Fold:
Amino acid sequence: MYRRACQTIAIVLMVLNFSPMALTAFGQGRLLWDIQQDFDGGTDIVRDITLSKKTAVVVGNGGPEDDFIIEALGKASGAVQWSEHVPAFPGVSTGVQVTRFQGIVFASGYTTGPAVSSTDISVRAYDASTGALLWSNVWDAGRDDSPQAIAANRAAVVVVGQGGNVVPGEPIHLLVRAYEPATGAVLWEDRLNDVESAAWGVTLNRNRVFVAGTTFPSPSSRDLLLRAYDISTGHLEWEVARPSVSPVEVKFGAGHLFVAGSEATNASPYLAAFDAKTGALVWDDTVPASGSGLFSDVRVKGERVVAVGRSGRSLVVRAYDALTGVLQWEDAPAVDPGFFEFASAVDFNTDAVYVAATSEKAFEYAEIVVRAYSAADGALLWDDRSHRSAMSAALAVALGRNRLFVGGFATGSRFDFVVRAYDIRPDRALASD
Structure:
């Protein structure tokens, strides 16, 4: 089953170690705090981050029973403000997601279903300040139900994923459900029952829900399916398909939808822009790859779009003009023999692009990598490498006005939660720690 490459990680061996941070003239990401949490020896992995007014809210899996963990950390200190461990499915550790709108945090995960070895989609809403549970919903669409993405605005909270099958081995189906943000009442839902399919990404504007998914015309092929729904009614307004394209992420901005993933013909990173009103293709780009590659994340702000992932054994970062697709700059640093690097997540502002990545040395160690680039020209501002251990990875990033937060995991008793916070203000560039 296809899954975000940044969450299916093969890294390698050794003990915890820290490497120093390089200093540069602009925007040095001075480390404010770093936490590494072990939840009773479990496989503890931070998978997503969102920011509230005073906290960084992280979600992941952890503990001996592989719970669905939601935790709010104080932005200034990393101290736990509130947390909840929700029983999920022992022995299963896979994607969970989080987002925020105004003062509410919305998290999507999974829980044990009524049938033996089955899972249901779990959606939960919390007061961002106190952690009070405002509402929760469990969606039993079938046997192997799991969420893959969540998005929220004033009109709706929308969760997408896969499931809806009845027995093991039966084809899975694309799932979409919209909730009323304040109460959790189900507004509408959709599933694609006539073909094996799955949804991987969702994004919203004021009037529409956009879902990027995959159909599986044969066991060896995957095609992009991009759908637009009326956000209030769930009415399908348009859909487009592109053969041999596997989406990983979709974002709305500059009047377009930006779909990031891979193109199967050359196993290359792929990015496309579609008109949000009609679904018409505006532009697309396939990155030449030495070996397989994909874009694992994409962000758009103003008229710039940035996509990150891997190309062959190297991480890749590309910035484009959002309207035309013209490449503004790129970075795909060469790696030494025996090394493999990939970028999992990106966020940026007008000054800098911040990338969460992983570096592995085969059969020896892996490191969490955070890289900052000049947004204007892609010049590398700083590169921070930490948590060298048998298995480490950075999977999530969230950018505030003055701080950057990166989440992932590192080897501890098994895997441990890792969250790092940086001060990114230019006037702190050369401040001592």
